[in-house]
Amino acid sequence: MSTNVYLKNEVRDLPGFKTERYSDNSGDKVQLDGMSLSSDKGRIYLIIGDIDSSIPEKLKDLIDEITHYEWIPRMGHREAGVYRLESAECDLVPKDPGGKRENPQY
Known about the structure:
The chain is mainly β. It has two domains: 2-69, no CATH class; 71-106, no CATH class. The chain has strands spanning 2-7, 17-21, 28-32, 35-40, 43-48, 63-69, 81-85, 88-92. It starts with a strand and ends in a 14-residue tail after the last strand.
């Protein structure tokens, strides 16, 4: 399970925001007031442990997008595809991690 909270570029203007290259040039170390953030393709995001984790108050107005990835084991058959409800979107992909199963994982 993984939840990423992508932030608007304005996060770079907050006091306490800093970024520096790792010594092996594998990417950037990004921090805001000692809180570790991540960067991918120029987008800054916060990784939260689970969907119920709270987002720091100072970042709530800077949220651009939230993504959540999770395995859903042994449920009934669903068509693969994109499911939408209001502003939420789910891309459902059936997987069979090995062997034949009566009910696939999603």
